Amino acid sequence: MEKFGNFTGVAAPMPIINIDTDMIIPKQYLKTIKRTGLGTALFSEMRYHEDGSENPDFVLNKTAYREANILVAGDNFGCGSSREHAPWALKDFGVRCVISTSFADIFYNNCFKNAILPIVVTPEQLEALLDDAERGSNATLSIDLEAQTISGPDGGTITFDIDPARKNALLEGLDDIGLTLAKAKSIDGFEAGMSNERPWI
């Protein structure tokens, strides 16, 4: 998994509560097991009309937000079914960070496994960030995971909490397999000891 570095990016405002995984990536796209190619289907039911043409009113179709890599969203983001295709679609589109007041647990966990940073803020902080995100092409936020800060276009800074182990995994680019392999020497040592102590196993 790629390491999560500090970055400044365009933030798209999505002040909708209960954005579920079916809204993020509808069920008809779940047949693939590839993590790529789902970006074009992200939010497809809101993003496109029935004839396949773009909905010009949807935020990610607006010129200023077509390459947004931060989403500032309403409460309970990622609720619904536990499809990992949801973070796959976000990542493939280019989203590296989602900011909300709360996340569904499974979606939250899946984000970390796919190098996406989900940040939980207070309702007051979210309101300020949505105001920043409404600025169109000037809607840039700077994310510093090491310092655990979000900086707005006017220089204001918000701090956020994150589990230290999850933070380290993102900074080091380690998914579950990577975290296990990082302890390979300890595992090998344990197995060697077990073989000596209990050769019958």
Under the CATH scheme, the architecture is Alpha-Beta Barrel
Structural class: alpha/beta
- Please state the overall shape, judged from the principal axes of the Cα atoms: globular
Task: Report on the biggest sheet.
Answer: 7 strands, mixed
Secondary structure elements and their pairing?
Blueprint (H helix, E strand, L loop, with lengths): L6 E8 L6 H4 L19 H4 L22 E4 L11 H9 L3 E4 L4 H8 L4 E4 L2 H11 L6 E5 L4 E3 L5 E3 L4 H9 L3 H6 L2 H14 L4
Description of the structure:
This protein is an alpha/beta fold and 201 residues long. It has one domain (7-174): Alpha-Beta Barrel (Aconitase, domain 4), CATH 3.20.19.10. 32% of the residues lie in helices and 15% in strands. The chain contains eight helices and seven strands, in the order E-H-H-E-H-E-H-E-H-E-E-E-H-H-H. A hairpin with a 4-residue loop joins strand 5 and strand 6 (149-151).
